Amino acid sequence: MARFGSVARPERAFIATLLAEAARLSGELDAGAEYLRSAVDAIAGGPMTTIYARAIHGLAEALVLQGRFDEAQEFAAVALRDFHERGFATELALLLEVCAALLLRRGSVDSAARVAYFADAVLCRARRVRWRFSAELARTLHAELGARLNPAERERLTASAQAAGAAETIAIAVPDAALYD
Fold this sequence. Notes:
- This protein is an all-alpha fold.
- It has one domain: Tetratricopeptide repeat domain (Serine Threonine Protein Phosphatase 5, Tetratricopeptide repeat), CATH 1.25.40.10.
- 76% of the residues lie in helices and 0% in strands.
- It is built from nine helices and no strands.
- It has helices at residues 9-25, 29-43, 50-65, 69-85, 89-105, 109-126, 132-148, 151-163, 166-173.
- The longest helix is centred in the middle third of the chain and has 18 residues, at 109-126.
- The protein is globular.
- The chain starts with 8 loop residues before the first helix and ends in an 8-residue tail after the last helix.
- The mean pLDDT is 83.
């Protein structure tokens, strides 16, 4: 990136997301998070693009993997609003999975399930392919929910998630954030 310093901000952000994925695949979570932060910073304030959304989602996920849960929650709260307002449905769903993992870590099993099942339904409808780490997070999340909920509870929460809208699910995902005043 230093060699191509004159590269436009969106292209720099795209390169940074690729470097982040390579770093994460090599087990360098801290380096991956820093690349993602530089991608977000490179195009912050500009138009919402898929690359920007991907970097935001990746950074929130990286913060969770690093155990920086409060920071991930704060970051996700702002990003969820942006994704929803701008119609980035699949990126919103991927970020909701991160929020569901945070809810589960805090012991809010029902809320985590409703958010995770809503996100899963959106991603299945969109036939979205997840990044490797997103897929691992989703597998772990659904395995933990499966272990904590009996079949009747899963069915009830799945029905509730399918009946909910995105704004309602966001309010469950980040209950302390005043997203829709």
